[in-house]
Amino acid sequence: MAEVGSKVEQKQAPRLYAEWDKTILGIERIKEKGLYEEPDRESKRGYYLGRPIIGRDTPINGGVYLGGGEREAVVVDDSNKDSPLHDVYKEILRMRRAAIKAGRNFKSELLSDVYDLVQKKLPYSQEKERRISLKYGIKPDQKVLLDIYLKEKAGVCRHQALLAAYLLERMKKENIVRGTVSVDRNYVPRRGGHAWVRYVNSAGIVFIIDPTNELISEISNIKPDLKSFYERPRGLR
Question: Are 188 and 4 in contact (CB under 8 A)?
């Protein structure tokens, strides 16, 4: 299933019925291949080839992000000191220091800074993403570090969402922010899937960060037809 990548397609998608079980579809597929490991306290979605599966409300760093259909399995892991993730994180901290030095409210600008940095480090390009797959000979469900896309300076919605979520998660770990972050996704039958970041600040306000569709907003401020696309259905786990 192709990603709902273009801005035009994504703006049309809310008019269609969206399904929210894409992670489950990925898990069912790897179960059929005998590559799934059952969940435990450390990973509520289970494991794929030794990596915790990234889903809604799960940790990002150290995990693997499966496709609903066969494609690369994106690994987010900064355990290697040479990972470009460290450089991107250092850059967001420099932006933080600059904001403080200039007397600006860093927290009010934080999500915008993350959004801008992701756009800069991982420009959206379906064509370049396909070229990366060909260049590295990436096979279906092969684990591939997000680092590769950072080095090639291109990705699609899933790569952008994972990078933004990683930055926010790491800032929380270092007590810079107190909110919670999730990579959310859904898909519209016969049209494709999409991924973005859902961030809930310490006051309980929900924000949507979607670099692919140039959207960053409190969910309550998103126009109703588009809000229905991003808003989690009741009872969703």
Answer: yes
pTM of model > 0.90: yes
- pLDDT at residue number 2: 31
List the domain range (segments joined by +) for residue 20.
7-230
Whether residue 51 contacts residue 64, with contact meaning beta carbons closer than 8 Å, is answered with yes
User: Is residue 237 situated within a structural domain?
Assistant: no
Q: Are 1 and 187 in contact (CB under 8 A)?
A: yes
Using an 8 Å Cβ cutoff, are 43 and 58 in contact? Answer: yes
In the chain, the amino acid numbered 54 is I
Whether the CB-CB separation of 4 and 194 falls below 8 Å is answered with yes
Share of the chain above pLDDT 70, in %: 92
What is the rounded CA–CA span in Å between residue 10 and residue 213? Answer: 7
Three-state DSSP class for residue 160: helix
Report yes or no: 21 and 236 within 8 Å, Cβ to Cβ.
no
CATH number of the domain enclosing 43:
3.10.620
Banded pLDDT at 237 (limits 50, 70, 90) = low
Cα angle: 127, vertex 117, 51; to 5 degrees: 70
For residues 154 and 175, give the distance between their C-alpha atoms in angstroms, rounded to a whole number.
Answer: 30
Amino acid at 154: A
Condensed to tens digits (0 to 9), the pLDDT of residues 21-39 reads 999 999 999 999 999 999 9
**Phi, psi (degrees; rounded to nearest 5) at 143:** -70, 130
3-state secondary structure 133-159: HHHCCCCCCCEEEHHHHHHHCCECHHH
